[in-house]
Design a protein that fits this description.
The structure holds 2 protein chains of 2 kinds.
Chain A: E1 2-6, H1 9-15, E2 21-27, H2 30-33, H3 39-52, E3 57-63, H4 73-79, E4 84-87, H5 91-100, E5 106-108, E6 110-120, E7 123-128, H6 144-147, E8 165-166, E9 169-173, H7 175-185
Parallel strand pairs in A: 2-3, 2-4, 4-5
Antiparallel strand pairs in A: 1-6, 6-7, 8-9
Chain B: H1 11-20, H2 22-30, H3 37-41, H4 43-47, H5 56-69, H6 76-86, H7 104-117
The complex binds iron/sulfur cluster (4 copies).
Chain lengths: 220, 131
Amino acid sequence: MIIAERKPFEEIKEMLKSYNNVLNVGCGGCTSICLAGGQKEVNKLNAELTKEIPALKIDGYVIERQCNYDFFADLDEKASQYDAILSMACGAGVQFVAERYTSIPVFPALNTVFCGVDRNVGWFEENCRTCGECVLGETAGICPVTRCAKGIFNGPCGGTRIDGTCEVDKNTPCAWTDIYNRLKEQGRVSNILDVKPIRLWQNQTRRSLIQEDYKARYAE
Amino acid sequence: MSDQDNKAVDRAEISGMLAKKAPEMKHILNYCLHCSLCAESCFLYMSHDGDPEYMPSYKVINSLGKLYKKKGNVDREFLEGIKGMVWNNCVLCHRCYCPIGIDIPRMIDFTRSICRSQGVFPELDEGESWL
Ligand code: SF4
Ligand code: SF4
Ligand code: SF4
Ligand code: SF4
């Protein structure tokens, strides 16, 4: 799931300073689940904004997904009544809202932080950088891109501490030590004995994906 | 516990929301053929051994359908009662197939909006789970 956190209040205030009629749109998907931009968080932010900026008229509305136009019908009816929209979705959702209502300024209320997992209520951990060439099959389900400070593919780097932590941060386990230990436990250390070729990190262009079974549908 | 836990629900607001979408929603509620094709295409229904509580048509008829039947004359208990059906029992994946084109997730989405308008929604930080 996508994990986000609310921007500092002052930053949100600054973004909205030229507007006095704003709609704060929450997302019923990931940012509800990571407790950053769902119904409760919309209500809370609006209460704070109303208290701090008495002249601001701010309404709240949550749509179930900001990354799918099938859920935009109600927002379509409301959007034009406001002079700015604040979105509490991830960056993908904010952009989708901005693309839909190009004449209305759209602002992000959150910082989208990572793609990760729930450890406990309100506690999340990054697990994947969506690199597009997953190597977890070889690395015992531990991501070297995300969890090794240097993102190296032929670790460990030589800086691992004796207690198995990373030289960059003594509170972080060395990803490659963990990879080695787990592969050893599974009898698969041979996976990492060969030197891996250099990963061709490419200049990034916007990625888009059509699942194999749907290629014919979008062939045009 | 919801923000507005003890407040009475605003029935006029609910009726207004229902009325506004009545032409679209009632139409589709009235035309369900009970053919169960939507059920077979819902992964939640299939993965819960055909538990009827996960059947797309069941979820809509027992939430939005009841709201229309009662013309919005419901209390908080009713909304809390359908909360699980429209949040936990449907992920709004849009994969259910209806041969006559009933848009089940659109109706569940609308039912969630009605619940939200009265402060009824999953309290994820209070240990309520999504699925
Ligand atoms: S818009 Fe972003 S936060 Fe909302 S459901 Fe989509 S991916 Fe998740
Ligand atoms: S290798 Fe790591 S960053 Fe790349 S897709 Fe796999 S988990 Fe994600
Ligand atoms: S010590 Fe381990 S985690 Fe840290 S940079 Fe080196 S290989 Fe990566
Ligand atoms: S949208 Fe809901 S009812 Fe339809 S297939 Fe997905 S989970 Fe099932």
